[in-house]
Amino acid sequence: MVGANPKFQAIDRAIRLASAAVLRRALPLRWHWVALAALIVPLSFVIIQCGKAPDAGIVAANTEGAKSKAAGASVDAFDDHVPAPQFADRFPSASERLPQIEHQVALAPQAEPRTVRTEPVRVASLTPTLTLPRTEREELTKLVSMKSSAFPYFGTNPRSEEPFLNITKGDRKGHRSHSGRVYWQDETYNDSRVLVHVPETFDVKKPGAIVVFFHGNGATLERDVRDRQLVPQQISDSGTNTVLLAPQMAVDAADSSAGKFWQPGGFKRFIEESASHLARLYGDPKSAQAFANMPIVIVGYSGGFLPTAWSLEVGGLSNRVRGVFLLDAVYGELDKFASWIEKNRTGFFVSSYTRYTKRHDLELMQMLRDRGITFTESMDEPLRPGSVVFVQTPDGVTHRDYVTQAWTEHPVKDVLVKMAATPALTRIASTPYANQ
């Protein structure tokens, strides 16, 4: 190839002569030919390539590429969008140390911080929705179905020892009330729900109490206890460390039947079952044991006197009940109330009344005098262990509005505030949870 071109022959001859002269002066004779070959061979390859004509395949490829570009081909190269992984961005090379990389990262510009919202997390299981920890607890009110609530009830009426459901019509069973009216089980005595309320300020590690509210006749939990009588609101507004349980009694009926609270140990089973529900609503499963040992205050309004009296008599937790508050509710069972007052001098008893129950309240006062138990007729003083108070309210106060307007506005709140002024009423033996 070189010999075929006179220009390249002349260049090659000149290079050989010059290289030979240099090598003769710089190297011993025996190395001259080796060095000369090492110099001339690579140079020959360069000259050959320079004199070689373009390859036909390359020309064809370039021609096709030009045609594609001219035709407006729209397919982008994959590597232009998805570059190969650059692991040097993540791991130090052999010549670098990890501290050097960390220092470079620290000096690099930082992205703006993000605000991460805390949202409920739903998992694929049958368990309830899990919620990430809240920065601030919320006030929660919930209707919870409980097996130990008052109804449904298929036992007997302890006063008559007859079946409670004493009326049958086809497949339906019902109860004939004291007034002679029939209420059907599937309409009136089939609601097992309990209104549970935990204020946002409640702290299970501090002394507190469970308030159990037994509503009166013709009531429902949502319409009356929650929205009209404002019982959950009164609990929260009191500022006391208390929670609320309000079981549904006979639904919207003129009936005071106690249901499962007639049974020995019925009230105890109710409180024991409620502990896990309160703990779940509170947001800490470990708090169930604290709720299971917490002092109890029973509030009975109107027809709620019956489940209140039987819970004190046979409920199984009379020693844990630190207070009884009757709102125009002494319609009967006087012996049960007098017996509890006499046997439990560490708790308080308050009965406020209108003209409708005045006669029975006066009778109960006399029963206590006969037993040597003193009482007062004023709510001006704080409630203390052993306090017994009767309060007559003015004639203008109506029975229907009594839970929100008695001797004062929001009487449930007022009683709890006076109770909280005496820590001994809410202090009970410490629980393992409280010591954690």
Walkthrough of the structure:
The protein is of the alpha/beta class and 436 residues long. The chain has 2 domains: 1-49; 138-425, Alpha/Beta hydrolase fold, catalytic domain (Rossmann fold, 3-Layer(aba) Sandwich), CATH 3.40.50.1820. Helices cover 35% and strands 15% of the residues. It is built from 14 helices and 15 strands. The protein has helices at residues 6-26, 32-50, 56-70, 78-81, 98-107, 185-188, 221-226, 231-237, 266-282, 288-292, 305-314, 334-343, 358-370, 411-420, and strands at residues 120-121, 130-131, 140-145, 156-157, 162-163, 167-169, 172-176, 182-184, 193-198, 209-214, 242-247, 296-301, 321-327, 348-353, 388-392. The strands form 4 sheets. The protein has an 8-stranded mixed beta sheet with strand order 3-9-11-10-12-13-14-15, sandwiched between helices. Strands 6-7-8 form a 3-stranded antiparallel beta sheet. A hairpin with an 8-residue loop joins strand 1 (120-121) and strand 2. Helix 1 (6-26) runs antiparallel to helix 2 (32-50), helix 11 (305-314) crosses helix 12 (334-343) and helix 12 packs across helix 13. The protein is globular, with a radius of gyration of 46 Å. The model is unreliable at 25-135 (pLDDT under 50).
